[in-house]
Amino acid sequence: MSIHCIKLNMSHLKSAIGTFRCKYSHFANGSFFAPKLLPSPHQRLVVPARFANTLFWEKERKGGYDTKSKKKVSQKQQILDGLKELRQEFALFNQEWKEKLQSDPLLVFRPGETDVMFNFESEKDLNRWVITTDKDHNEGFTEAKFELSPSGFGLFHGTLESRVPKDGRIKRAGYANMRSIRIRKSFKREAFYDWEQYNTLVMRIRGDGRSYLINLASEGSFDILWNDIYHYVLYTRGGPHWQYVRIPFSKFFLASKGRVQDSQGPVPLNKISSLGFSVGARGGHEGQFRLEFDYIGVEFDPTHREEFAYEMYKQGKYIVAT
Questions:
Q1: Spatial separation of the C-alpha atoms in residues 291 and 177, rounded to whole Å
Q2: Contact criterion met (CB below 8 Å) for 270 and 196
Q3: 199, 266 in Cβ contact below 8 A?
Q4: Alpha carbon of 294 to those of 130, 181, 211, 264: distances in Å?
Q5: CB 137: neighbour CB atoms within 10 A?
Q6: pLDDT tens readout for residues 194-231
Q7: Strand ranges inside the chain, DSSP E
Q8: pLDDT band at residue 13, thresholds of 50, 70 and 90?
């Protein structure tokens, strides 16, 4: 076997590159179009086909559903706003160090006692939650509110509608969601809830007989992990009586963008970014909904030793999503 080495002429190489640019300029700007072909009398023209260049990359955490205002603020106004928040940030920084020096795991995490994470006693407590519906994105007509009930508790209520806008784009509609605002440390540093010492989610609620979906978000650092959410169903009885709910974290299963994942595992309790509840009109369940909260907490139950409730199968590497 012999190898022949050819000395290239630079003038010929530049001429070939120029010819390639002229013929295949449609590859520029990240878009791909099929080459222009001269059709024969019996052939049809080739229609250009464009391929998405963002298949494996997410530009925004919300996937285009960010509801934050895009209003531009001058640099001077940004400096003034920053100086106003500086005192608050230093106070939060001092509080962090006090908690770090004073906390004792033997006193904080006591078996059988519920540590309340979310109260619903005032407007300040309700401001820790964000409410979204399909109507917020012009994709439906569902309305929802989160406010104090006449009895002084947090009330998530509204009207579900599966009617879709007549734009030829939306196929299904009818959902409402409430989600806790992500906690942060001082100086705008994002943080997580660390519930690693607990194994049970505890809450006192009063529902309407509907089934709601509990969402434990665990956002990762990479864009492929931004939508990792662990779900479990919340069944409500309805009626005037309060309901105590105890759900082990081992019962939650992993999904991403509404799709249950093949690769499952226990909830990373030290990486919980937010807690939420969803309700939908799918299956003809339109109309009013009502879910009232007294408190939401976590607890360590020494009698519960299950790590993960579902069987896990190890598949070959050629199978997708395992």
A1: 12
A2: yes
A3: no
A4: 18, 18, 18, 32
A5: 13
A6: 899 899 999 999 999 999 999 999 987 777 788 899 99
A7: 114-119, 129-133, 143-148, 154-160, 175-180, 184-185, 189-190, 200-206, 211-217, 228-235, 243-248, 253-256, 259-260, 274-280, 287-299
A8: very low
| Distance in angstroms (rounded) separating the CA atoms of residues 183 and 190 | 7
Exposed / middle / buried, residue 124 (Cβ in 10 Å: 0-12, 13-18, 19+): exposed
Length of the chain, in residues: 322
Q: pTM of the full predicted structure?
A: 0.73
Q: Which two tokens stand for residue 33?
A: 């179009």
CB 141 within 8 A of CB 161: yes
Instruction: Say how far apart CA 130 and CA 65 lie, in whole Å.
Output: 14
* pLDDT tens figures, 123-159: 999 999 999 999 998 889 999 999 999 999 999 999 9
Joined together, the tokens standing for residue 216 give 């434990």
In degrees, rounded to 5, the angle at the alpha carbon of residue 241 between the alpha carbons of residues 236 and 247 is: 40
Token duo for residue 82: 């920053």
Contact 135, 122 (CB under 8 A): no
User: What is the DSSP code (8-state) at residue 193?
Assistant: B
